[in-house]
Specification:
ten-stranded mixed β-sheet; 2 domains; Spore Coat Polysaccharide Biosynthesis Protein SpsA, Chain A; single chain
Length: about 290
Amino acid sequence: MTAPLVYIIMVNWNLKEVTLDCLESLHELTYPNFRIVVVDNHSEDESPRAISERFPDVEQILNNKNLGSTAAYNVGFRRALEANAQFAMLINNDTIIDPNALNLIVEACLPEDVGLAGPLIFYYDAPDKIWSAGSMLSRLTLDLTDDNGRDKIFTGITERDFLTCCALLFKREVLEKVGLMDEDYFFYQEELDYCYQVREAGYRILLVPEAKVWHKVSLTAGGSGSPVERYWMAKNSVLYYRKHAAWWNWFFIIPWRTGSAVKNTFRLAYYGKWKALRTYWVGLRDGIRFPL
């Protein structure tokens, strides 16, 4: 029996060496039926040339401008659907994947009621420390509740409300039923929005802890707490709440997020990240003003 075809989608923007390292790890996968497509967001570091020279089997789609991660993901999804792939997997280019991970994730995603499945993700610089194991969602605040599972021990496949797009397998049926990702989320929070929709559509989301990925963490955004990260996280968080909150949720969301804004403000000020602090508040303002 032929294994289901998986299209592995990677987005690149000016991270040539990092992308090449990730592609090297993908070429070590033991899964027997996959294709790789790199969606390049108009890189200026000769990434496409380097990729084609070192990995001529990798398909590349070259955007004529930086579309942001979400729109670029959708470019890859459309290519996977055109190729009649049964699954599409997003993977960040700043990751290294275990050779057996894809086998385990695909197997977990086969049942009809499963829509998404993903690996346990560790810090690249601390390879035994969990970066993300997904999260559960508060039904009151619609926020993540357990710090991406960093302090938990997972011994088997576990249902989660949220998994990060850092490495995430999508069933074709989900892409066709739920649709592609909302491109209003230029960068960040797109996976939170999508996981919410997948759950609302009746599918389960599964963490496969035996499958492992190591993440170099926020290289494209300039690192955690950078001005770029703070802006898009703030703006897109507001979009997420505006899109999904019922009227009664706001009685819980407003005090919760106000407290979060105060905490973020003091934290950024304490570390002297004044530019990040400014972009954080600009992001909140832009999220409130954004037309839905």
